[in-house]
Amino acid sequence: MKAWVFQEPGQAHWQEVPDPQVRDSGDAIVRVDAVTICGTDLHILKGDVPDVRPGTVLGHEAVGEVVETGTSVTTVRPGDRVLISCISGCGRCRFCREGAYGQCLGGGGWVLGHLIDGTQAEYVRVPFADVSLHPLPASVNSQDAVLLADIFPTAYEVGVLNGRVRPGDCVAVVGTGPIGLAAIATARLYSPDRIIAIDLAEARLDAAKRLGAEAVANGAEQPERLVHDLTEGLGADVVIEAVGVPESFELCTRIVRPGGHLANVGVHGTPATLHLEDLWNRNVTITTGLVDTYSTPTLLRMMAAGRLPAASLVTHSFELHDMAEAYDVFGRAADTAALKVVLGAPQHMTVALTG
C-alpha cells in the first residue's frame, strides 16, 4: 500500500510501505476512505515532536471500512463503516475507566501517527478497536464525519466543557483556525449571550462570523479594547485559547473577567509567562488538556441530527494520493485560506475533488 511517511524534519513522502497486519487480538485493520491533516502534523514535520521516529506514517484522523479484526474485537466487524478516533484507549486502566482516554496507561492515548503508524495511508492498524472505533450511521457522510476524529471533540471537551460555558455567557475565542471555529460552533449549543472571535487572518474571522461569532477583532488591532467595551469593562466569562503561542495565552489572561474561566486548547511548544502578580487575586480558573474523546458518541448523534456545521469547515478536497499538495495548501493557510482539507477516494467523497 501507499502512505505519507515522515522522513526527517521538513521531509515526508507518499510512498510504498508494507500493508498493516493484526498484531494484537484487539486490533482492527481499516481501509481509509477519508482522512484529514491536523496542525499537529505540521508541527511533526517541523521537528517539534521528537517522539515521532523517521519512517512513521503520519495522521490520526480518518473514516474508513473495517476489513479485518483481531479475535477479541466485539463491537465492530469487517464491512462496518467507522470513525477512527485520534485517541486510542485500552479501556482497562484507571484513566480509561474514568473516560480520560488521552491519559491511557495501557498503551493508548495519542499513538496513531505519533508512536505508531497513523491514518494518512490506504490502510491503518487501529489498536484497542472496541474503544477507538465508532460505527457510523449511513446518514453521516465521510467528509463530515472525519471532523469528529479530533477537532470537534477537542474544541468541545478542552474548550467549551473545560471552560464551563453557560447560557448568557460572553465567550471569547482567541484563534479561529479549525479548533477555534469548532469551539465557536459547539459553544453556541449552550446559548451564550455573545461570542467574540480574535485572529490575525481576515478570512478566518469571516468564517467565525458565519459560524455564529457576533463580534470579531483582528489580533493586531487592540482586541482587548473590544472585549472591554463589549463587557462594560468586566472581561469575558470564558476565554478559549486555540493558538498555542505565548502571546495568545497571555492575551487570554488579560481579557478574562474576575471569576472567569480560561480554557487552553492550543498546543504550546515554547514557555508562556503566567503573570500571577496580576492573576492571584482575580479568582480565575485556568484549565489545560489533551482531548479524551469521551464526547465523540454525543457529537456523532448531534451531527446525525444536523446540529453541527461540519461541512462549512472543509475548504479543500483532494484525492488520497495528492497528499503532498494537500499538505502544501494546508501549511500555507494564510495564502490559501485553508481551514480543513479532506482527502479520500472519489467514491467516498461528497463534493467534487480539486487538486
SSE diagram, text form:
Blueprint: E1 2-8, E2 11-16, E3 28-36, H1 39-46, E4 62-69, E5 81-84, H2 94-97, E6 123-126, H3 129-132, E7 133-135, H4 142-145, H5 151-161, E8 170-174, H6 178-187, E9 194-199, H7 202-211, E10 215-218, H8 223-230, E11 236-241, H9 246-255, E12 256-264, H10 276-279, E13 285-287, H11 296-304, E14 314-318, H12 323-331, H13 333-336, E15 340-344
Parallel strand pairs: 8-9, 8-11, 9-10, 11-12, 12-13, 14-15
Antiparallel strand pairs: 1-2, 3-4, 3-6, 3-15, 4-5, 5-7
Helix pairs in contact: 5-6, 6-7
Structure commentary:
This protein is of the alpha/beta class and 355 residues long. 27% of the residues lie in helices and 24% in strands. The chain has 13 helices and 15 strands. Strands 3, 4, 5, 6, 7, 14 and 15 form a seven-stranded mixed β-sheet that branches.
Helix content: 25-40%
Q: H/E order of the elements?
A: EEEHEEHEHEHHEHEHEHEHEHEHEHHE
Structural class: alpha/beta
Strand content: 15-25%
Q: Quick one: overall form? A: globular
* Helical stretch tally: 13
Straight-line distance between termini? 21 Å
The main pleated sheet reads as:
7 strands, mixed
Mean pLDDT: 95
Number of strand segments: 15
Low-confidence parts lasting 5 or more residues at pLDDT below 50?
350-355
Keywords:
single chain; 355 residues; alpha/beta; seven-stranded mixed beta sheet; six-stranded parallel beta sheet; globular
Characterize this entry briefly.
The chain is of the alpha/beta class and 355 residues long.
